[in-house]
Amino acid sequence: MDCDVTDCERCPALVDSRSRIVNGVGPADADLLFVGEGPGEHEDEHGEPFVGRSGDVLDEGLRSAGLARADVRLTNCVRCRPPDNRDPRASELGNCRGHLRTELAAVDPVLVVALGKVPAEHLLGREVPVTSAAGAVHEADLDTARRVLVCVHPAATLYDRSQAETFESALVTAADYAGDGGQSTFGDF
Fold first, then answer.
1. Strand-by-strand arrangement of the 145-151 sheet
2. From CA 74, how far away is CA 72, in angstroms rounded?
3. Residue 160 in 3-state DSSP?
4. Which of 4, 87, 146, 184 could, after both became Cys, cross-link 23 (CB 3.0–4.6 A)?
């Protein structure tokens, strides 16, 4: 699969704030593709999505839902760290949209999981009240029809423990879509 971005300078502010481009990781044929907003400090440092505290929450949530991180694909709307951990700007999301679409086409997941407000709105093309919409699956036109599951961001559970059940419930829904394909290494924990 050739969807890694190795050289991009479309967004001057992101180029200045990144130490590297953070591409998606996980199987090229994963049933589940999790999409975050953009790399944070730890992701920029390690070159992999969801490796900081949010990654720990995501990993635990996946395990609880009967999934393994090694069986899902993780990526972001933008591949470079926004300065001061701000939300990506519309122009930056637009500049990176082609990279995300290329990855979606290559992986061809059964379900796309939007982790948080920015990815949910970016993928669905409209405003999304994430907390109340979490767990709902929507159809989105992303060059082809795709199912997109809205999920609160793992970090939301760190700041608001009342979001934990909503987050975990959405991951169970994702696991249901993956069926047996998402559980091939569950026994390895």
1. 73-76, 32-36, 111-115, 145-151, 137-141
2. 7
3. coil
4. 4
Question: Which segments of the chain does DSSP mark as H helices, in order?
Answer: 12-17, 41-46, 53-64, 90-107, 117-124, 130-133, 154-159, 164-178
State the Cα–Cα distance between residues 163 and 147, nearest whole angstrom: 23
Higher pLDDT, 179 or 14: 14
Q: Tens digits of per-residue pLDDT, 69-100?
A: 999 999 999 999 999 989 999 999 999 999 99
Average pLDDT, the chain: 93
Print the SS3 string covering 134-148: CCCEEEEECCCEEEE
Instruction: Report pLDDT for 1.
Output: 62
Count of CB atoms situated within 10 Å of the CB of 70? 13
Give the torsion through C-alpha atoms of 4, 116, 10, 108, to 10 deg.
30
Query: What residue type is 49 in one-letter code?
Result: P
φ, ψ of residue 29 to 5 degrees: the values are: -125, 30
Domains and CATH numbers, the chain: 30-180 (3.40.470.10)
Distance CA 184, CA 36 (A): 24
CB-hemisphere CA count at 13 Å for 77?
Answer: 26
